[in-house]
Amino acid sequence: MKRLLIIGAGTAGTMIANRLRRALDVEEWNITIVDPVETHYYQPGFLFIPFGMYSKNDVVKPTRDFIPVGADFVKAAADLIEPDQNRVKLADGRTLGYDVLVIGTGAYIHPEETPGLREQEWGRSIHEFYTLEGAIALARHLRTWQGGRLVVNVVENPIKCPVAPLEFIMLADWFFHEKGLRDRVELVYATPLSGAFTKPIASKHLGYILEQKNIEVVPDFVVEHVDPDAKKLVHYDESEVEYDLLVTIPLHKGDELVARSGLGDELNYVPVDRHTLLSKTRDNIFVFGDAAALPTSKAGSVIHYAVDGFVENFLRYVDGLDLLPSFDGHANCFIESGFGKGLLLDFNYEVEPLPGRYPLPGVGPFALLQESEMNHWGKVMFRWMYWNILLKGKELPLPARMSMMGKWAR
Fold this sequence. Notes:
This protein is an alpha/beta fold. It has helices spanning 11-23, 56-59, 132-144, 164-178, 200-206, 208-212, 256-260, 300-318, 373-390; strands spanning 2-7, 29-35, 39-41, 60-62, 71-75, 78-82, 87-90, 95-97, 100-103, 107-109, 126-127, 148-154, 185-190, 215-218, 223-227, 232-235, 240-242, 245-249, 252-254, 270-271, 285-287, 292-293, 331-338, 341-347, 356-360, 364-368. The N and C termini lie far apart (53 Å).
């Protein structure tokens, strides 16, 4: 019997296990998923917790609820991948062999990599919302915070869900309006990029939004260190951004397992063919989700579209056929903009976000590069779709490859 081993029971690993369990002959293929954690997290929901929109119960479910019948779940940490021997050593001493390996080990924040960030003010005047614990702690802090200078800072890219910091600061604008504190809060978005929206067409259509909300943008700001006592972010050129409350998006890196196994780049992401997700150095290792070094967003929609094209490609792979360039980097991102409205971006490797309607031309119901209430509801509805459709490997009636239908080329 052939062995498919999946490391990571997050979004990517779970979706692949469900899709391939249905596609592969159970008498020919054994599917095993390895993960040390028995809780599955709906990570896009972490954004809503600081503002009281979601609670912990909205974003966690048991991992085993989504493991397909006929697949094995091993609760253990993978300690080392040995690709020359086609095996994975587990932290508990066991060894699992494979014929094909799928790496879906994700990405994690590393605040300790920025001097001064995770010191005495961590959890006091410095918070994050990229972990469940961090989001809950920030919710507690905002519940009684009476105002001041709130700075949202992205330390370095790439990060999970690149639009989440923008969403946070726009939701903060709404949140403090609702609390009657907006005139006592100064909102600042400090980014290492050239602006809040860096693609020319998106910038043309959306560049006004933060200015309209009285949110200051500090572009090209690369943090060298944080001075937690003086409450300052310090750039490499020694310019500074002061804060009373810092919401940081720390440096992200792939799993240390990737580094230990010699499969990653300097940030522990695995280089892959950007159209097939096959490792560039190993012909029986595929990498999905945040673990892959790809020139596209580290977001759930990217995983969904990549997995959509993977099933057919995997069947070709096991039959010895050439892989098809099935994944085009397609991503779409709903962006909460506050006050019950949202934005939507749809793009791929080659095509930047364009205005228009999605998914149906002239109908939508979602508007591209425009604020609308329907976009907000699209974001809200995605949680139900995630738990009930995407994780379980069910297909959506949408093409995996990006379509130009409904888009205006301007």
